Amino acid sequence: MPLFLITAVALEKLSRNYIVLAKISRVLKPGGMVLSLFPDKGVWREGHCGIPFLHWFPKGSDPRVYYAAACRFFGLGYHKKNKTYIQWTQDSCEWLDNWTYYRTQHEIETTYNKYFSDIRHIEDCWLQLRFGKRTNITNWLPITLQRLVIRKLGGLVFVAIKPTQSFTRLPSSRTAIFLSMKG
After folding, report:
1. Using the 8-state DSSP alphabet, how is residue 9 labeled?
2. Which label site among 77, 90, 115, 134 has the fewest CB atoms less than 10 Å from its CB?
3. Could you count the other beta carbons within 10 Å of the beta carbon of residue 149?
């Protein structure tokens, strides 16, 4: 059984991500950790096609297609492959409709809390690792602001820990974690 697993930019592509989280929890050693990096619904740039806020529009909506086409016309987006603006827009929107399931941070944390006893956001640590020796660029930012920058520009980065003992989560508070030992 592994002590550490990484999920990177994958869970937003699963309509039923709780199935994967249940399997991760099953194979992870007690006290083991899963490092998760993926965008939530609040991220500003849609990472699969590069158009800001495109994932905020309802799936299949005409305004989404027109917005994507306008952004593409002004040079935004990637994976263009010599396609016309309209073809690229239709292909990108169709792919997002079929293969992405963006959730709010609250929905993500609620799902994780079913399988893990502790979630620790580490966006600030990830930012420091990404900048390496250039950390003086980010050191002047308070940690709260560093986390916000990463969440809005890239997505969530957090570690979830599998409980070492059986636990039952009480529904009365979404932030408090109550452990009850089973004898």
Report:
1. S
2. 134
3. 15
Residue 96: CB atoms within 10 Å: 21
38 and 120 part of one domain? yes
**Amino acid letter at 33?**
M
Sheet holding 4-8, edge to edge: 4-8, 33-38, 156-161, 118-121
CA separation for the pair 38, 151 (Å, rounded):
9
pTM: 0.80
pLDDT digits (tens, 9 = 90+) for 81-131: 889 989 999 999 999 999 999 999 999 999 999 999 889 999 888 888 887
Number of domains the chain is built from: 2
**CA dist., res. 124 & res. 10, Å (int):** 21
Of residues 171, 160, 24, 19, the one with CA closest to residue 101: 19
Angle at Cα 63 formed by Cα 56 and Cα 61, nearest 5°? 75
Domain hosting 34: range is 4-42+102-161
